[in-house]
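## Example pair
The file below holds two records. Each record gives the amino-acid sequence first, followed by its structure token line.
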Amino acid sequence: MTPTTTPAMTLTIETFRAPDDGCLAYLVVDEASRTALAIDPRLDQVDRFVDALAVRKTHLAYALDTHTHADHLSGVRRLAQRTGGAMLAHQSSKLRAPARRVRGGETFALGGTTVTVLDAPGHTPDSLALLLEGHLFTGDALFAGGAGRTDFMGGSASDLYDTLRTFEALPETTVVHPGHDYVGRAVTTIGEEKAQNPLLNERDRAVFVGRLSVRREPPANMAALLRHNLGEADAPVVAPAELHARLDGDTPPFLLDVRTLLEFQSERIEGSRSIPLDQLDARIDEIPERAEVVVVCRTGVRATIAAESLARAGRQAQVLDGGMVAWRRAQLPIREGRKRLAVDRQVQLIAGSMVLAGIAMGTLVNPWFLGLSAFFGAGLTFAGATGTCGLALLLMKLPWNRPLPVEGPAGATCAAGNAASSTCAASAGPRG
């Protein structure tokens, strides 16, 4: 979470970065009125937003998604419920929840700050951008060095071409806050993108459309994510303390843990049953039909997807609110197992170490060693743009990342870790 204050000290912008896929969310605070706007909060970030509001003694006035997300669960409804903030949504959004609808050209007040809404279709039909005090929040319409995909959810490369022309007309000093960071730069400017973004600089509409028309794999669990984000499904939650009390009762619920087997073996709630999310559909018969089911994962995201999958199969389930993170924070009992560093963190440690080593050796020994930094930097960029991380796939095959054998039906193995999921980035060739 990175705080940024505008030169006039009228706004503070806090950036919330998701560690797994480069998603960026924002809390914009009007300092004079102590009112705030939440942009693209993920479901697993709701607690962090609430904590940030409390620390700042700030009231959340509005919460919105810049578009209907297909790669993660939205936290807008949950955040609005917990804070009393108003939900905003583009007039083209198919959101099935009460929300104030906005359209391009409209403005609304955040304390003494005027927020201008810009239509930004292309990635999705309901995409919008927000402009305030020289800061532009682009969602997935424009990234540093790239732009959003247009090959699913009603996307239109031609519409995105027009959206980029709208952004291009803004002052070059306009600070851009994108919805994803795939190149290690969470903040850029219109001037920087005009100088180096190959998509923003493409002047031939037909060529632009052709570059963005290549179809790729959709994000994992996209259908379930969309149902939740559109308000078509919203699994009920149970607080850690309440679940703990029910587990001690006469008829405890069936506790279904949908994390990977490695995570489950590292730590779990006593009595829980492991069925990883990617195996749930094939193993649903292992869940007692009449049992009260509570689904557990690390933060509640995978559990929400699992609960909605169960609902489609006619099984009702609740979600442990906040997952194992909240359970541990509540200091409730955990059965500890073999601890192993998550694969994504192993990738970060190895890649970061190699970049630093290359820079150091290139400076002190021979400039050719800078190629080591370039190699790992290019690998990270490729992973972000394609959703495929070769280093993560290699690490998952190593002995310490393999799950321990387990007897019985719950012992079916699963992937030891998760490479980056399919992203929202367009395939645009080399980036500047």
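Second record, same layout:
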Amino acid sequence: MPATRQLGAFALLALALILTLVLALFAATFSAGIARAERPFLTTLVVFACFLSIMLVFAAGGIIERLSAKAGAGAAWLLAVALFTLFVVYMLGTGSASLLRLAAMAAFLFVPMSLLSVGQHAAPGSWQDLLTLVVIWVAVKFGPSHWVWPYPEGRLAYIFTVVVAVDLAIAGFLVLRRTKNVGYGIGWGSGWFLYVFGSLAVFALIAIPLGIRIRFIAYAPRVHEWKMFLPLSLGILFFTAWPEELLFRGLLQNLLARATNNEAAGWIAASVLFGFSHITNLHFPNWRYVLLASIAGLFYGWTWRKTGSIFASAIVHGSVDALWHFLFRTV
């Protein structure tokens, strides 16, 4: 894995605070009267900041080793219990307490943890690993996120679900299973500019003509929205690209490659599965989306293999999504 200069824990905590404040501003702007609901709003901010801080702080080197040294073998379960406790605080603080919601979150957190615990000493890429990835993906993709996170008006429900899913993957795969070579870090390495921007450029040369040819996209720049480019790009990077790169590259491609002892097989299989995960987007079955997403997955996976970092592949992924949003419309 190429040497990288990674951000430290304090820098990542500051980043979590900035992202929380940006999201708070977004929620207050687009949800009438939300800022006047003092206790629910502040509770939501604090809980989200905690979830996001867990997601980002574990990207600092050495955190997992320090946690394991202090908490021992139960570190992963302590982290899962902490996530569950934060959800309880959210429910009580926002007045949305419900036994059904409590049960849904308990299942979301502890069923995957139990699966991984059963296969804790199995070889990487065991059926428990792969089934856990499927369970998490299905819960995020098709779960009732707006019902689980009703405040504020369900607007941030998907983001909450995604961040908690990443935290769950950290507890299960990084802390409990100690999965190697995931590349869960935020930094920059030697030669990454070529890998990241070269991958983005070559993919654009393929995907734009193909997307227009198959009538999937059309050139339609949103000039009036460019003032939102930076905040929206950051949101896409951390709440879409980062979680998907952890799932499909850092974990799925990694585990499939190790299970088959074949890097190319893991790369191609994960890319195709990434494509098929988009089959329900916009409408079902969306084969054009599957095709382009599979091709994109090959480039994201190549970037991850070359850099050993999901941050690098997430930059390519996030750039594709951001430029698609601002330069093209889906036909």
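Notes on the second record: The chain has two domains: 1-179, 184-331. The mean pLDDT is 92.
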